[in-house]
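USER:
Class, as today's exercise, take the chain set out below, and explain how the chain folds.
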Amino acid sequence: MKRFIITILIFAACCNGANAIQDIKKVYLNEAIEAAVKNNIDLQAAQIDINIAKNNIKVANRLQNPELNAFYFLGGAGASEPKQIGASQSIEIAKRSARKNLAISNLELTQKNVNYTTFDLKMDVREAYINLVAAKSVLEALEQQQELQEELLEIARNRTKSSKEPEIDTIQVEIALNQLITQVNTAKVDVKTAISNFNKIINDPNKIIYDSKDDLFNEKNNFEEMETPNPNLKFPSTDTVIEKALQNRYDIQIAKQEIDIAQKNLTVVARQRVPDIELSSGYAYQVASQTDSGHFNSGAYVGASIVNIPLFYNYSPEIQNAAFKVRQAELKYNSVKNKAVKDITAAYERFLTAAENLSHYETKILKNSEQMIEMSKDSYENGETDITALIVMKQSYRSIIIGYTYALAEYYNDWTNFLREINDEDFEFSETTL
């Protein structure tokens, strides 16, 4: 019986521990972006601004609340003047519509800002995903080199035992292997850091750890999966791309919307000069003891007032400042467009360079390096070269493999940066741009 109870307790503890462990979910790039857009806490907070802006339209379109009035005269006046109970209502002239239009324009700006935030999040996820896959690819390349180095160490030991090579060859290989092990350990930490950054960008409050699908850098024709054009395409000129690239820039749209807001705000401020009307009405009565006829008299009263007459203050400073804001917004819009052309040009030219470098790696450096390392290994096994030459060759080859991985990651990241600059995640080189 005691053993049975202990078994149950152990099983329950294991179940609780399993529930505490966070799920690991491996995703492709498009799945990672979908998860971020759906679950990102910062994005959810930003989207609340849209609801606030919608409520601000109702606030801007509000009617003034009425006032209740009562007049009860005392002393001698109370013996002759009627008592009054009534209400008054302020009516704004040409102000509500201007405020409402301004609030609507602010809502459109808020929606554009949220769209920009969403797009920026997608680009951050792309970049973090690429960096994670690159880190895992570097680790995989180093681990493969470690296996080859361990094989080389075994060959060196066998040759030393057979007295074909001096013992110093084995020592050199061991030193090279130990150096490689430290690089592998560092690469493992880099992968953990990249996973942490990747999940930090997604910012999912659920207990899920997202990880990238493995071996994307080692698969053929994986550019479609990474939503990146093939580097072997014949890309159009920069001037051809810029015209299309400028169409979707959020910062240009936002700057243009800010001009509209400034103009509507000028209208709101200028209409403060328009006087308002205040209407009042109510019930008045006199008791019998207060009238000459001795009868109870009652009736209604109405009144109207023109208020907020711009006589002593005509809002000139506010109107001038609002006009300055319009001019400021127009200058900002021109500046944003001017800078956008330069940013797009720099990003696109950097992308073209990355594509050229990647193509150079694939067509010239990698192929020749693989042949060179195989020839060096065969030469050493046949006793034609010494161990030092082979170690140097392996280190060079390792640098080339890692360099290629970084070149591939840079190509993906430069494409992401180009998309970030044109604010269009679905940008394609159409027939008109090729």
